[in-house]
Amino acid sequence: MCGIVGYLGTRRAYPVLIKGLKRLEYRGYDSAGVALITDRGDLQVYKTKGKVADLEAYASDKDVTGCVGIAHTRWATHGEPNSTNAHPHYSESNNLALIHNGIIENYITLKKQLEEHGVKFRSTTDTEVLVQLIEYMQKSQNVDLLTAVRLSLQRVIGAYAIAILDKSNPGQIIAARKSSPLVVGIGEDEFFLGSDASPIIEYTDKVIYLNDGDIAVIRRNEELEIVDFNNIPLEHEIKTVDLKLGQIEKGGFPHFMLKEIFEQPECLKDCMRGRINVDQTHVKLSAIIDYKDRLLAARRFIIVACGTSWHAGLIGKQLIESICGIPVEVEYASEFRYSNPVITNEDVVIAISQSGETADTLAAIQLAKQKGAFIYGICNAVGSSIARATDTGSYIHVGPEIGVASTKAFTGQVTVLTMLALALAKEKKVISSNQYSMMVNELNAIPDKMEEVLKANDHIRDISRIFTYAHNFLYLGRGFNYPVALEGALKLKEISYIHAEGYPAAEMKHGPIALIDDEMPVVVIATQNVLYDKLMSNIQEIKARRGRVIAIVTEGDTSVKALADEYIELPRTLECLEPLLATIPLQMLAYHIAICKGKDVDQPRNLAKSVTVE
Prior knowledge:
The chain is α/β, with parallel strands linked by helices. Strands 3-2-4-1-10-9-11-14 form an eight-stranded antiparallel beta sheet, with helices on one face. A six-stranded antiparallel beta sheet has the order 5-6-7-8-12-13. The radius of gyration is 26 Å and the shape is globular.
């Protein structure tokens, strides 16, 4: 959730760290800080509540010299957002400074033990407990910093990615991870740290992804050393990151979110490239080829995910069940891990996560593996923890998603799930050649149809101005479009802070209809499919209660248009592929309403892009 940057080399550290923090602003945060070992040999920590720009202003008259440093953006978990609780945290002597992503679950116990030994605390965070513990070990055991870190982490319960500086050893950074991502960048006579590759890609594309239990020792003019808790050296492969600087810049758009909405046609082409053949007649996924027998023998699929990825999973359930005839369950990963689920070695668990680092989803994977299930991962981040923890899977290949509210990752996930369903159905021989060819052809046509939907941007912006006043929204859909209603409501909540709920349209009569009046906008996904007449009845029920209807309709529709206050047209497509088109106007509607309300759409309050804590 929080962001980590580190640097050790020959160039000035401070500009590298600040630029890196700005690259990580998409992750969501409430305070920022930096620690530097200056040219004078001092260990200086500068931190403040607010944005990275506030940190820059605060440090503008400070000593920011030096060629080694660590920096952090914090999303509060323990202790309110303020400059005291911001990272980095000093040890009691001010000789150590530490930054930390994650949660130390047993910090209260550790804190009490340290207080009994006379340690004084400045903050109310779990992180300060860790740096104080490391210094206590260093002094009480008379050991070097690496040994103190190893001994301390053996006593810690929880998740962490940490980096630590020692004033007495200015040419060194020690970093470690467990259940929270951390990347080491390898440059020419220099090293970088990042919670992902985005803050360091400007300087190097050579990285090492640390695994759980790894401790990295970064020393000036020496090779990178990685050891485990027992100080046993570990080997790691240097990876080349396929990430371009332009992908993490706005490219002329006012916000990352709008850029990413408009990127979706090209992103889905990238997602399908190499998986749908040039004749558009066949879907090929390497996971199906390599693990065909295991996947075809599955008694059921269990999809685990959180948030937007869970909505994609609901669409995946309908796709796999309707095309393949395999039963599918969809679970919130956060509930699944604590529900004592019945899982056997005949089950396949599909784990979906944009970042590949979602803590609850990772925990669900670990539980399912313990029970013998086969794990299929769907994520966006190459080299992420989920990608490495699963037995096989598929990347969605939509490029980095910087806006906190997910857009292109959702359509990428749905596209991969569609291809997975088609490939499985073909191998199981449960889909006719005509239906298979028709679906493959239509899936391949979706990016061009998305381009048509995006042309409605100005129209949707005008509609948004009308409904900025609203305090509540209702989103209705049926069948494949019910999860789209959930996703549309989530987007509006996330970035405009307007309360919104998504419902199956038929469920409106069982409660939500009581809320409808002339102040309640209702978004209805009323495309021309088998449930069209049912949706027409739902719209009439809304209008009878003076509700304001914004309808998503199929191009050429006349009946719904006559009833709706506002409408947005979609090109005609197969019912099972409608979510890929219907979600786009809902993303734009949320975006433009939030802009009209003056909200920060890329960094909405209280939210983080990568939820690496429980």
